[in-house]
């Protein structure tokens, strides 16, 4: 597929008009504006999504990508935005040289799969020599506020672009590297964009979204690969909440003041992102497994006063879904689907899915269905109710890896592999 560069004037004008038409109607434009959608919790309003698909069934279009990546697509108006990388440690392409490593930001037309423009970004070298499980150098999902795109590329920094792909500012949030790579995604709230720079500097960093100027930095963010979420506490105030090694932390999103902490009793790093409802935050994580619920609105160490329950079952990678009083998730290595009562943590079902393989992608809830994607391209569709009902298992791709979480909009499901972006819809 032909690649259109961002500096082409005609293409830029067309792309801008696509983004800005109806921009004031935020619900219509910011359909899936960040990792795990508008709320950051993996819930979409899409309807009419098919439960069955394959390489030859219910594929609206399939676009070959210029490079690999584990970031998820976001959907803004008529376009899809995603990142990838080329030139070094690309799965199936040999190791190569770091001097050839390039990062890329793509804009793809949602209806047709046609690439509108591509921005090439030079990384800050040296990068991590090797990254386990082929996670690569484009693992963070972009975010959009309707005016700008915000991308995070680890030590290269947080980079803001306008909606035509022009770079506006760049902020370095740390310079450390890690064998797992950097995988959390930026999130936007009011006038700030937030970056979990646990790998790069053991920090949570808030940047002015117009200028990139650092507004505050919270230290002590250790072994944390999840993206923050924003939760309304019982008093109606918004808290930023994030999981780190051994703790769930609550912050004032404006000042960066740490409000509270709660012990997780999970003795490992934290990768899955949190979910929340009615002022209660739910977490799963740790290679050793575990889960907990904690009420927001506390002060200091709230382990005894605000921790609602703890559990032994969890997932080390994939994030959960919260729906109608129940938590749903998939174990990353065993292919076991879980459902638990949100109020008590009691496991309602624990079902092994034949052929599920490893599941790193976080699920999506839409149209009354839970959509899981395994690393080998298995699409697993389960009815979103506490009585286990497996609707289908599907298959995409050969000799490629699916680590990215799906996105939904309208009546379409978008799934990304190391080689392709698929648009799935009923025909």
Protein described:
The protein has 427 residues and is mainly beta. It has one domain: 7 Propeller (Methylamine Dehydrogenase, Chain H). Helix content is 6%, strand content 38%. It has 4 helices and 33 strands. The protein has helices at 9-20, 26-29, 198-201, 303-306; strands at 59-64, 74-76, 79-86, 102-109, 115-121, 143-144, 149-152, 158-161, 167-171, 187-189, 192-197, 203-208, 214-219, 229-232, 238-244, 247-251, 258-263, 275-277, 280-284, 291-295, 300-301, 307-311, 321-323, 326-330, 336-341, 347-352, 364-366, 369-373, 378-383, 390-395, 407-409, 412-416, 420-424. Strands 14-15-16-17-21 form a 5-stranded mixed sheet. A 4-stranded antiparallel sheet has the order 1-33-32-31, with no helix packed on it. β24 (326-330) and β25 (336-341) form a beta hairpin. The longest helix is centred in the N-terminal third of the chain and has 12 residues, at 9-20. The chain is globular, with a radius of gyration of 20 Å. The model is unreliable at 1-27 (pLDDT under 50).
Portion of residues within helices: under 10%
| Poorly predicted spans | 1-27
Residue share in β-strands: 35-45%
User: For the record, what CATH class applies?
Assistant: Mainly Beta
Task: Report the span from N to C terminus.
Answer: 24 Å
Largest sheet: 5 strands, mixed
Alpha-beta classification: mainly beta
Radius of gyration, Cα only, in angstroms?
A: 20 Å
Overall CATH architecture: 7 Propeller
**Assigned CATH superfamily:** YVTN repeat-like/Quinoprotein amine dehydrogenase
Largest sheet strand order:
14-15-16-17-21
The number of helical runs is 4
Under CATH, the topology is which? Methylamine Dehydrogenase, Chain H
Write down how many β-strands occur, each being a DSSP E stretch of 2 or more residues: 33
What's the overall geometry?
globular
Mean pLDDT: 91
